[in-house]
């Protein structure tokens, strides 16, 4: 494994690009236009600079990481020579399938195609390609540079070899991989969405304030972050899409809280928009995007 292409330069795509670059991989980050990619380049370089200044990166790796990063608007150029392509776009199945169909035509027959999804079916995506044995889900967590876990989700046809290679990549990135057989929501999203949705219902019902609900979970159940804080960090629009998918596939217990629906309609999307269950200043918004 020498070169990794990443499709999508949003919060997750930028985080995955950073993690790959500091792990020694040549990284080509792809998105729709130069303006989007220039913003991503600035954000990733700021993260690399900050990691170096704080002592998390040694000087040699600092310069290697900078050299490893490349940015490309042409998907074919970005993906054609990569041994691994990680898609990190919105949680919309039609969008993902369209990208995988293109990648299947562009990439060499041995290239592994991975989707960074928190809920959606790698089997369904793989079925649209000629290489279902080489399609897998790699579920990274936000913020990628801090979170140690990668869920590796097998589709129905995903080979042992593919899973093994992806686990090796996770190890190289100093992440811990857990293997999951495909089922809607996998492990973490299935549990996290339930907890977060119930916290939203309690807030809507007036059981307690957002601050006190989160504090109770942190101090009483030893969660590092409260469920409403976490939802704001993930993005309430993203959480709503996840809940709608799980409601469709797993049933009534995943019905999205009406308060979540209302907040998304109002444009209260969490930390990235400046308001969600909490209010955020511009510095906090910049850290997110």
From TrEMBL:
UniProt keyword terms in alphabetical order: Oxidoreductase
InterPro entries: 3-OHacyl-CoA_DH (IPR022694), 3-OHacyl-CoA_DH_NAD-bd (IPR006176), 3HC_DH_C (IPR006108), 6-PGluconate_DH-like_C_sf (IPR008927), 6PGD_dom2 (IPR013328), NAD(P)-bd_dom_sf (IPR036291)
Superkingdom of origin: Bacteria
Short name of any one Pfam family annotated for the protein: 3HCDH
Domain called 3-hydroxyacyl-CoA dehydrogenase C-terminal: residue spans: 185-280
Associated pathway: Lipid metabolism; butanoate metabolism
All copies of domain 3-hydroxyacyl-CoA dehydrogenase NAD binding, residue ranges: 3-182
Family statement: Belongs to the 3-hydroxyacyl-CoA dehydrogenase family.
The protein, known as: 3-hydroxyacyl-CoA dehydrogenase NAD-binding domain-containing protein
Organism taxonomic ancestry: Bacteria, Bacillati, Bacillota, Bacilli, Bacillales
